[in-house]
Write a structure and sequence with these properties.
Shape: globular
Largest sheet: 6 strands, parallel
Order of helices and strands: HEHEHEHEHEHHEHEHEHHHHEHH
Number of strands: 9
Distance between the termini: 57 Å
Number of helices: 15
Helix content: 40-55%
């Protein structure tokens, strides 16, 4: 490719990136970044905030009301509900008080397009883990009324509603799929018009959800298991179910769900440096698989330090020579290619899992969002196809879920 050709390709990619609505279905949040003095109007350490969204041309961020799995007790449910409410409140504070001129909450695809046209950024809300619902199904409607437009019924560890993919580790299951309450929650989500997210529940739970649901489902942040054998990814059979159901899988830019070989080659070095950085922050390193075993409060504090460590680690790694190659945008788009080839482009989308462990070389935060579009253009995707991947597939599912809800009320 001549220099002129690559300049022309870059310009074409930039023009496409400017014209399409870019939507990321999974951006975790920390309520500490939603205060009067520290917030998303500032270019914080967080991988997502308004300056980074603007710099990278990321138009729509689904902010996540995430709750780590804890005990299935009244105390546990109460605490989980409090955590969820604090995150809903933080997102509402951002759009209503902190930056109403810069970002607005959307609950429908019409909202997304209207807000986008106005020049503002778009916030949407997803719920990661149905644990805060507790044993009171009325909470599903409460969360819907607060703007929640998708929910996964489990995270890492079985919830009262559903088994988790983590059951694959020890083959210990709580419900063999969904609990009775979980089945009721699926029906309630259909009735309200809330998308069902299968990114963390077990394979059997996903099968039961599809069987029960009258509307298409989504996997808000999962990649292809055939390319990377992790229980958080969808295998070919699950992908086939999702296709038949009319749903969409939002490919996730999370290193360990994209390329195991590359991750293993680098992780030893990263862990050594990361451990030293964590020590200097006065925190003991915890392996990713063990983070889920920390009590919720300790887990939140750990993630605060982890986020600081990641920034410092990135800086150190950038100065090191002869490092094994990092998982990058090319590895990410390999998964998109595979999924498109396997189930058709109309069933594939994009997510980052930023501020929740996501981020790869070339798309390490929202400011680098353009690099994904550039790679798609390099691989021959058309503007229409790129728009489908970035937003219109996901918004189509949201429309269909909301249309089904109208028929059930």
């Amino acid at each position: 490719m001549t220099n002129n050709d690559s300049i022309a390709l870059l310009e074409r990619a930039k023009a496409i990136h400017d014209r399409v609505i870019t939507l990321d279905t999974h951006c975790d949040i920390n309520v500490k970044n939603f205060t009067d003095s520290i917030n998303y109007t500032q270019n914080l350490e967080s991988q997502v905030n308004l300056p980074k969204m603007k710099a990278g041309g990321l138009d729509v961020a689904w902010f996540i009301v995430y709750t780590g799995q804890d005990s299935l007790t009244d105390t546990g449910y109460k605490k989980a509900y409090g955590n969820a409410m604090s995150k809903f409140n933080a997102i509402h504070k951002l759009v209503k008080e902190i930056a109403p001129d810069a970002i607005e909450l959307a609950t429908t695809s019409e909202d997304v397009r209207r807000i986008y046209k106005s020049g503002k950024k778009v916030a949407m809300i997803g719920i990661e883990n149905g644990y805060p619902v507790g044993l009171d199904i009325k909470n599903v409607e409460k969360f819907y009324n607060l703007g929640g437009r998708y929910m996964s019924l489990a995270h890492n560890g079985h919830s009262q509603l559903s088994d988790s993919n983590t059951g694959e580790d020890d083959d210990v299951w709580l419900h063999n799929g969904l609990s009775e309450l979980g089945k009721e929650v699926i029906k309630e989500m259909n009735r309200l018009g809330m998308m069902i997210d299968v990114s963390h529940p077990s394979k059997e739970a996903m099968r039961q959800m599809i069987e029960l649901s009258k509307a298409p489902i989504i996997a808000s942040h999962s990649s292809a298991r055939a390319l990377c054998n992790h229980s958080r990814n969808l295998d070919d059979e699950q992908l086939e179910w999702l296709k038949e159901n009319g749903g969409v899988v939002q490919t996730v830019a999370f290193t360990s769900y994209l390329n195991t070989e590359k991750v293993e080659a680098r992780s030893k070095i990263e862990k050594e440096i990361g451990t030293k950085i964590m020590d200097s922050l006065g925190v003991k390193w915890v392996d990713r698989k063990d983070i889920k075993n920390l009590p919720n409060d300790e887990r939140e504090i750990y993630y605060d330090h982890y986020s600081v460590m990641r920034t410092l680690l990135k800086e150190k790694l950038s100065k090191m020579k002869n490092l094994p190659p990092a998982v990058d945008v090319s590895d990410f788009v390999n998964h998109i290619d595979y999924l498109v080839d396997k189930i058709g482009i109309q069933h594939v989308g994009i997510s980052s899992d930023f501020d929740g462990g996501g981020g790869i070389e070339g798309w390490s935060d929202a400011s680098e969002t353009f690099n994904v579009t550039l790679e798609l253009v390099k691989r021959g995707y058309t503007e229409d196809e790129i728009e489908m991947l970035w937003s219109s597939n996901l918004l189509r599912v949201l429309d269909e879920v909301q249309a089904v809800a109208k028929t059930l009320n």
